Amino acid sequence: MNLQELQSTAKALVAPGKGILAADESTSTIKRRFDTIKLESTEENRRAYRELLFTTIGIQDYISGVILYDETLRQSAKDGTPFPTLLARQGVISGIKVDKGTIDMPGFPGEKITEGLDGLRGRLVEYRNLGTRFAKWRAVITIGNGIPTSTCLEANAEALARYAVLCQELDIVPIVEPEVLMDGNHTLERCAAVTEDTLHIVFSYLKKHKVILEGMLLKPNMVVSGKDCLQQASVAEVAAATVRTLRRVVPAAVPGIVFLSGGQGPEEATEHLNAMNALGYHPWELSFSYGRALQEPVLEAWRGQADKVQAAQQSFFHRAKLNGAARDGNYSTQMEKKPV
Fold it and tell me: Is pLDDT of 66 > 60?
């Protein structure tokens, strides 16, 4: 284990003004995204779309890393350049989603457990050889009547910790993603309480498994009202509740927190990130690791048409630039209307 390399990579991923593009959608998820623009999800269409994103000029100014899916990691640009090589030439670090998705947790209705630990060490060796320097594992926590249970939280925390230490063994920075879903009618306060409990247990298991905090990143949900809650929290309330919760449980040794957008719209996710950074100094970098919140406008602009690639890339650059501004608390909604 090379502690210096782990720390260097972790810090580079949360460099000032930059964040991570989550382009690790599974085949089924990208199909749903393509369905919204009435585009068939073929391997070539998926490859062409990822190339559109990765070849956007100047994107390295705002994107530090890209989380890839297994298929995407093995694909190449039209000129034959493997995607990890293409990204590295721009100073963008390649990462990889390594979990195998969630299944129903036996004996605990409504709760999920993430699979993928079997054979993970071998897969990580291969991914490292293919050019990845960081990885991601997602756990899913649902808020509902009587859930989450402590059993669910502990089982997912154990898996996250085992994944993280396997990554660090091979000098791969683990992104630890315990996502408290926004599905439901719960209040902001309920989300805050569950998020705090979740992160408290996750960090206790990371400690048990001797995960080096300085060589990892946390990818949590923001503290928001459930999407079916009648009283939706304001941007300021979300920012305050999220920062307060994180300060209670996330050690200062962690270099950065890269939020997931979790179903938020592009502008909403940017506003929330901006409001948190505008609050002042934090012991960790507050950054982003957005999927849909970065890509939704891009897909709409592209729609699978070759003559729309430039417009789609401009949309991606603009969205990334706005989130880069939010990293410093310098974003404003007026920037949404300004041309790139």
Answer: yes
Percent of the chain with pLDDT over 70: 99
Q: Are strands 93-97 and 102-104 parallel, antiparallel or unpaired?
A: unpaired
Global pTM reads 0.96
- In this prediction, residue 338 has a pLDDT band, given cuts at 50, 70 and 90, of low
Fold assignment, 3-337: TIM Barrel (3.20.20)
Beta strands 102-104 and 112-114 are antiparallel
Q: Is the pLDDT of residue 336 over 50?
A: yes
Q: CA-CA distance, 103 to 80, in Å (whole number)? A: 37
d(CA 288, CA 302): 23
Residue 138 to residue 95: CA distance in whole angstroms? 14
Q: Which residues pair with 65 in a beta bridge?
A: 20, 93
Q: Which of 18, 136, 219, 321 is catalytic?
A: 219
CA distances from 160 to 153, 175, 208, 222, 319 (A): 11, 9, 12, 19, 30
In angstroms, the CA 73 to CA 84 distance is 7
pLDDT of residue 340: 45
Is 321 an active-site residue?
no
In whole angstroms, what is the distance from residue 63 CA to residue 91 CA? 9
Tell me which residue has tokens 């990371």: 206
Q: Is the pLDDT of residue 17 over 70?
A: yes
Position 263 scores a pLDDT of 87
CA dist 340 and 40 (Å) reads 30
Question: Could you tell me the two tokens for 179?
Answer: 């996502």
pLDDT at 1: 86
Q: Which amino acid belongs to residue 340?
A: V
Domain ranges of the chain: 3-337
Phi-psi region of 139 (alpha: psi -120 to 50; beta: other; left: phi over 0): beta
Q: How far apart are CA 21 and CA 77, in angstroms?
A: 18
Two tokens, residue 54 = 């990765």
Report pLDDT for 262.
87
- Catalytic residue selected from 25, 51, 177, 271: 177
- Is 177 tagged catalytic? yes
Helix/strand/coil for 128 = helix
